[in-house]
Design a protein that fits this description.
The complex is a heterodimer of chains A (307) and B (353). With 307 residues, chain A is mostly helical. Chain A is 70% helix and 0% strand. The radius of gyration of chain A is 20 Å and the shape is globular. Chain B is an all-alpha fold and 353 residues long. Chain B has a two-stranded antiparallel ribbon with strand order 1-2. Chain B has one domain: ABC transporter involved in vitamin B12 uptake, BtuC. In chain B, helix 8 crosses helix 10. Classes of the chains: A mainly alpha (307), B mainly alpha (353). At the A-B interface, helix 4, helix 5, helix 10 and helix 12 of A face strand 1, helix 6, helix 11 and helix 13 of B.
């Protein structure tokens, strides 16, 4: 037990928690935005891969770090546009369209990486974002600006959703698109906008991995983080504040399992510790599922004039 | 712009839609090939030759198609009932794990059973493992309303870690020089080869038989009717007396079982032992194949061979002209998306206004 206390008392642990949480916060907000407008976005896993790749590639080619972030966001937005075309304009199955985008974006990124770097023994690296020591705050000073961006995005999205006409429109097309259309809103436009913006956030979530957490692009580096975000949105009952909480909670257990693995007295094979975050995600889903208030029109394609 | 349902789909549209999808995919891939600095025509030729151009190429393609057909069938039956099983990858590994657990040569302490009985037990265990793995998410969906997409996805990671743990521990092959691979299957449990000096094994016949069986089940049985009704409109199906939960359970057993069998057949037919890289995403490709086949069991056979041919062809093409093998994944993903769009355009007309 004292081992656990040692881990929790160490500020480095909490630094790790916030670092692990950052891409999850950004990704979860992205999914949340799409789902609030009534569209499931399973393209997140691939969108994160693509954002991680293009953002990193831009910086590797000599662009400033923030330009890399912008490139990642634009990559996400383009994939979001494709997703919107498939699910909103063509009203195709959201499950299949999202998986298709994940497969396409992942394949394109890996292909692009191999074309750009046909034979490299060690992955080429960049100089990632520096820690914000000038902040002079505990834990937060040892994060990079992208973590700050993620933390600021939470209240911003909350404000947008609950305090602006745009947020009302967005929630309305996610709850009752027919009524929204009756009010003169364009369901296609609002949903598409939400998907494009949400996907841009997912792109930035991916870019955090290559521009901040690591300094290179690896295959399989996203490794299911996107799917975790999809689970976290349900856990968060589609609320930005709870999404932050969920991401932090998940990151807490992920950081803890890493430390316990490294601690001398690891009782179980290391795989058991790695399983823990996934098992907890499923448990969390089961616990909240009964009272989960899904956006009413989630996963329901909308075709004007069709019931 | 908006979509308007066509009064009737002209036969011409049904011909043009797939052709358009193929053309679009070829165009996108051609741009990527040009980016890699390779000649487009030659690359495509090599891709086709590598996948289908010789007896050897064809045999490799068919070998690769076997697990893809099985996971494709697994996705077909699940998606027909709108049970979105994205967990075939994990179910495949669970099936392979069960197959090795039952039929592995565990240091001479194997079961003292006739090979035929042991073979049956091995297949049953693998199907059961896959089925149980999907039964959890299916019941959670039916009883608690937990979205099965997320749970099946997350289970993939858990199963892969479990396999990794078993390969480090109880199932580790002590003679593999520290390489994480399982003990081999008893030799008498391995599937026979269909063509001498190739790797095509009798799993292909199993895949074809199961596709036919699933087609009959979907078309001519009460369960098949219930599955289709559930997928078409769950509310209406429940209203007219389709037993929703029981049908979902059956779908989970069929879908998970097929994916589990894919794992056992892959071990018994190709690798003879289990490794962590046995499947390069066959479970996920199965979904693509099911969609390419329009969720028709018999179509899965053709879609499976097409995808397998692209993957195999890309390997040999890449060695010749240096275009990365990931082009195959791009082609498969792009064809999925364009087939979906083409299918929608055949049924709906676009109104610009």
């Amino acid at each position: 037990m004292s081992e656990l206390q040692d881990i929790l008392a160490n500020p480095a642990f909490w630094v790790a928690v916030l670092r692990i949480a950052t891409p999850l916060i950004l990704g979860t907000l992205g999914v949340l935005l799409c789902e609030r407008a009534g569209v499931l976005n399973l393209g997140i896993e691939g969108t994160m891969v693509a954002g991680a790749f293009t953002g990193w590639l831009a910086v590797y080619a000599g662009a400033p770090l923030w330009t890399g972030v912008l490139v990642a966001a634009l990559t996400g937005a383009v994939l979001g546009l494709l997703h919107a075309f498939l699910t909103v304009v063509m009203a195709l199955s959201q499950h299949v369209a999202g998986l298709g985008i994940t497969l396409l974006a992942t394949a394109l990124s890996y292909y692009g990486y191999r074309v750009s770097f046909p034979k490299v023994a060690t992955p080429p690296t960049i100089t990632p974002f520096a820690e914000m020591h000038w902040l002079g705050l505990p834990v937060l000073s040892q994060q990079t600006p992208l973590t700050l961006l993620a933390l600021v995005a939470v209240p911003l999205l909350g404000y947008l959703l609950y305090r602006t006409p745009l947020g009302l429109a967005l929630r309305m097309v996610g709850e009752n698109p027919h009524a929204a259309e009756g009010q003169g809103l364009s369901v296609v436009a609002v949903r598409s906008g939400a998907i494009v913006a949400g996907s841009a956030l997912m792109g930035v979530a991916g870019a955090f991995l290559t521009l901040s957490a690591f300094n290179a692009f690896f295959f399989n580096m996203v490794n299911g983080r996107g799917w975790i975000c999809v689970a976290l949105v349900v856990f968060a009952s589609w609320r930005p504040g709870k999404a932050l909480l969920g991401a932090l909670l998940f990151a807490f257990f992920d950081a803890l399992q890493l430390r316990l693995q490294q601690a001398g007295s690891a009782v179980f094979p290391y795989q058991v510790y790695l399983m823990l975050p996934y098992v907890l995600s499923i448990l969390a889903l089961v616990l909240v599922a009964r009272k989960a208030s899904y956006p009413q029109a989630l996963m329901k394609p909308y075709r004007k004039g069709e019931r | 712009m908006r979509l308007e349902k066509r009064q009737q789909t002209s036969p011409l549209a049904w011909v043009l839609a797939p052709l358009g999808a193929v053309g679009f995919t070829l165009l996108v891939s051609a741009l990527l090939v040009l980016w890699a600095g390779a000649p487009v025509g030659r690359t495509y030729l090599l891709l086709l030759q590598g996948g289908f151009g010789s007896v050897f190429a064809l045999s490799e393609t068919l070998t690769r198609a076997i697990p893809l057909i099985l996971t494709g069938l697994a996705a077909t039956v699940a998606f027909r009932a709108r049970l979105f099983n994205i967990g075939a990858e994990g179910q495949l590994y669970a099936g392979a794990l069960a197959a090795v657990a039952v039929g592995g040569a565990h240091g001479g302490t194997g079961w003292d059973l006739p090979p035929a009985l042991l073979f049956g037990l091995m297949l049953a265990a693998s199907a059961l493992a896959g089925a149980l793995l999907l039964l959890g998410p299916a019941l959670m969906k039916a009883r608690l309303g937990v979205d099965e997409v997320v749970t099946t996805l997350l289970l993939n990671f858990i199963v892969l870690l479990l396999v990794s743990m078993m390969l480090d521990g109880p199932m580790k092959d002590p003679t593999a020089m520290g390489w994480p691979q399982s003990v081999a299957l008893l030799p008498e449990l391995e599937l026979s080869k269909l063509i001498a000096q190739t790797r095509v094994h009798s799993g292909l016949l199993a895949g074809m038989g199961l596709a036919l069986g699933l087609w009959v089940l979907m078309r001519y049985t009460v369960l098949g009717f219930d599955i289709r009704a559930l997928g078409a409109n769950a509310g209406a199906a429940a209203f007219v007396g389709v037993p929703v939960t029981r049908t979902l359970v059956w779908v989970a057993v069929l879908s998970g079982g097929l994916a589990g069998l894919a794992g056992a057949i892959e071990v018994a037919g190709r690798t003879s032992y289990l490794t962590l890289d046995m499947s390069p995403g066959y479970g996920y490709s199965g979904i693509v194949i099911a969609m390419l086949a329009g969720l028709q069991p018999l179509g899965v056979l053709f879609a499976g061979v097409f995808v397998a041919g692209m993957l195999v062809g890309a390997d040999s093409m890449s060695r010749a002209v240096g275009v990365p093998t990931y082009i195959a994944d791009v082609i498969v993903a792009a064809s999925l998306i364009s087939v979906l769009v083409a299918g929608a355009l055949a049924q709906y007309r676009v109104r610009w206004k």
